[in-house]
Structure prediction request, 87 residues.
Amino acid sequence: MSDTSNIFHVFPKKTKKRSEEPDIETAVTQALSSTGALDASYVFVTADGAEVTLAGWVHTRREIATAIDIACSVSGVRTVRNELSLD
Prediction:
């Protein structure tokens, strides 16, 4: 598998009104923390509008893919930028 850093994942715009959406950074952080599929202790989330950046370290490539999938599933997220590294 090739290196996955700096890959953008674009998804359709959510139809929820902005005022009804929770803070995207908080929502993604909570979603990552609540999963048992990865250790999110060193995953840092930032958001610029609907674009989310995941940075930090995880243990496996599978955890990178899982973190991206989880971030993509959060309401309001349109793009996920992956800057995760393997520790």
Remarks:
- The chain has two helices and four strands.
- Residues 17 and 76 are 9 Å apart (CA to CA).
